[in-house]
Amino acid sequence: MKIVIASYGFLPAIGGVSTTVAIQASEFAKAGHDVTVVTLEPGPTEGYGHRVVRRPGPLTLFRLYKQADVLILANLSLQLIYPLVILRRPFGLQHHSESAFKLSRSLFSADLLRRAVLPRARHFMTSAFIGRKSGFPRYVVTHPFSSSHNITPDVVRAPNERADVLFVGRLEPEKGVMWMLERWPRIREALGVEKLRVVGAGSLSATIESMTSAGQLPGVDFVGPLSGPDTAREMGAAAYVLVPSLWEEPFGAVALEGLTAGAITVLSNRGGLTETTGDLGVFFDPDDEASFDAALKTAREKFDLHRQSTSAHEAYRRRVADHVASFKPSVVVAKILHEMAA
To answer: 162 and 218: one domain?
Structure first.
């Protein structure tokens, strides 16, 4: 079956959409399908295990869409949807955000094009939270998953071999990275750790790197962006993964990655984040300082228990494995194909 996935973002770009598209494309290919990823993101086209077409011209885009047995779009990028106005074919639309929920009705708005193609979409939501906000009467929740192929047993360390706090993500204000750095002395004391490692890139990279270089953030290591395997190794060695998002995350796969890699995951309760770890994570309200302090205390107690009790840690890891099983890429792919065939 020819499957085309069109996305404005793709590897090597950092972010949830890029990662999710890459994992799904690989899973479709693993199942024996002929997969092409179409993207606006520059970068290499080889080495993915499937075809990648970057920044295609109109004729190429029309041909790929017309020939696809299954067409999936990640959000409604204007630069990728225009062939559908003419082709008028069904497609799967993966909602990684709320961008398609409140489209303008103005005749002079670019949303006019989005509205023209929307009736032929089968809707896939990145979380139940996003689905509830969509207003669409019918949708299927297809949670994205972490880079499971990178989180292998050899990178997951035992509790007594772990140390430090880890932040992984885009270095943007809404991700709460500066909020976290302002509270680092408190975090350091509450969790009994020496280091906070910051992995990622974004508009705040230069600021954070400058602050760490100048010694303004003692104990903070600015690591910068890492590959998937290297990020997995960081998570597998961390005692805690902190996800301090200040906005309503559509999902937040990094929290699921941290959990899968064996770290105690401490995360805000914004948006779809509550669906990532369930009660296996430690949640807090970033607007409530007492809530954050309580979460740090609980996280420390959980980590100490895992170091002291092998049986408690093994029971926890079994619960994590059961939880993660429902987020496997194969489950998501099966849901998409079933819905597109309905």
So the answer is: yes
